[in-house]
Amino acid sequence: MTHTGAASASPASASTASRGTTLRRPGFLRAWQIERGKGHTGWFTGAAAVVALMGQGLGAYNYLQVRDGYFTTPEMGWIAIWVQGSILMTTLFLPMVYVIVQANVAATEFEYRGWLRIMATDRMDQAIAGKLLYALELALIGMLIYGAETIITGLALGIGVQGMEIVLIRTLVAAAGAWSIGAVMMCIGVFFTTFPAMTIAGACGTIIGLTLTVGAIEVQRFIPFTLITVGMGSRDLAEGVDPHASMLDPVAICATTGVALAWVAAGTLGTRWLLRHREW
User: Fold this and answer.
1) What is the pLDDT of residues 140-193, one digit of tens each?
2) Eight-class DSSP state of 90
3) Are 226 and 96 in contact (CB under 8 A)?
4) In Å, what is the CA distance from 62 to each residue of 68, 77, 180, 197, 276?
5) What is the DSSP string of 63-81?
6) Rounded distance between C-alpha atoms, residue 89 and residue 55, angstroms
7) Helices (runs of H) and strands (runs of E) counted in the chain
8) Which of 26, 43, 139, 211 registers the highest number of CB atoms within 10 A of its CB?
9) Closest to 48 in 3D by CA, of 155, 201, 175, 197
10) How far, rounded to the nearest angstrom, does the alpha carbon of residue 241 sit from its chain's CA centroid?
11) Exposed e or buried b for every residue in 49-69, given b needs 16+ CB within 10 A?
12) Whole-angstrom Cα distance, residue 209 to residue 230?
């Protein structure tokens, strides 16, 4: 009798445990919410706003210096404030803001054994998806802030709305570049286990990208830490070519977006590989 009861209870217990495991496995949107709870979105928003403000200051200054001699049309005005102040800000400072925020989130997974619990409960895919969605959120927030401040600055300087589409379109392309930084930092955040190591690795990538920006313009188009600048079109202007057409060149826009998405895919695959081959 006792043996029969135990036998009959065993399948029920197994079924309950199975349902419990399924219930404990969050969906992608829930995983995104969990990542948002780990991150410091408020700090990031403030830092991104300050970096964008610095860029607007440089752009407005350069625009006012040569407005009458070169930036005489609304299209050129938008290009001036968008490009002139963006190169240093988006090649060095803004990528570092992304690096620090992403490294902080990644470090908590080792500090509080997050990855250990995730792998033990078979939630790797959900966790990676949540981190990618959070990285995309930060990418959009940062670039929308930069784009909004540029528009406010341009209107305050009296630049007409003609040509504003350059800012709107290039903001989204640059966001794809920022997302690639988040995906690469996700992978770095699994390879290294501490916040200082992750930050140093991201800083090295940023500095290397900045260095190559000066010496090898074409190479920077394939480096994730410089794809914000490339996405903004800051390096697409060339002598003898219509600046407006260069900024809206569909080939350049699609190529930059494609490279960024390729890095997102590479970061995702690299993260999966490292997680599966790490000793837990």
Assistant:
1) 999 999 999 999 999 999 999 999 999 999 999 999 999 999 999 999 999 999
2) I
3) no
4) 12, 10, 30, 38, 51
5) HHHHTTTT--SHHHHHHHH
6) 6
7) 13, 0
8) 139
9) 175
10) 30
11) bebbebbbebbbebbeeebee
12) 11
